[in-house]
Amino acid sequence: MNSIFLSKEIFSKHKFMIAIILIMLLLSFCFSGIVAYSVSNYNGITIVIDAGHGGRDGGSIGINGTIEKKINLKYALTLKEKLVKSGYRVELTRKTDDGLYSETAKNKKMSDMRARFKIIQNTNPNLVISIHMNSFSSSDAYGAITYYRNGDESSKRCADLIQSSLNTYCSAPAKQGRIGDYYILNCSYYTSILIECGFISNPEEEKLLNTDEYRNKFIDAVYSGILLYFGNSNLYI
Ligand SMILES: [Zn+2]
Question: How many domains does the chain have?
């Protein structure tokens, strides 16, 4: 008799546990973004940071040898650190020097860009920021330029705010964000901007961009623009 009661009790305990697990699974599906990211200071905003190029694709080469993919990653990591400290959830498209393409892909650039798109899509972010360095045939060109996709008001507003902040803190020549026809901006409907941080074809700016002091100042300016963007949005309502 005792063993029958005992097994009944174990059975009902199991049922209870299964019910709890099912409820938890259901909740995690409903609030996957929140449950999957349980950092105590999470402010509810998710940002994808995309360091341009990687692997075989080094991007532009500076007048004194700066390799764009490497410096892009440095800027992306500095921005990530700043945002995470402030409670943002950040996803990077690439975390290492490697590209995201499949080694067997015929068109590695397209394979790489599609992998970035998948990360963006899976992350479901409030904002996508792609980081690049500029290059031009004339070494006189200088300054940061922020791009957004044509016709997207939210991306334009974000690009304008970041550009304005860069103009104030880093003396960039562009007055507003500019329309850019880039895959990373066009591949999704998320608010997306691309920052060309400066010209590595300009020897003075290349040198500046490589210093820790300027990189931190630059990222602070980008961060100020992000704060203004989310401060003015209806995200919290
Ligand atoms: Zn680039």
Answer: 2
Range of the domain at 3: 1-30
**Buried-state track 142-170, b at ≥16 Cβ within 10 A, e below 16:** bbbbbbbbeebebbbbbbbbbbbbbbeeb
Is 79 domain-assigned?
Answer: yes
Ligand 1 mean position, distance from CA 68 (Å): 7
Residue 236 lies in a domain: no
Cα 13-15-20 angle, rounded to 5 deg: 95
CA 87 to ligand 1 centroid distance, Å: 28
Ligand 1 mean position to 145 CA, how many Å? 12
Each residue's pLDDT tens digit, 191-203: 999 999 999 999 9
Predicted pLDDT at 21 = 62
Residues 93 and 168 in one domain: yes
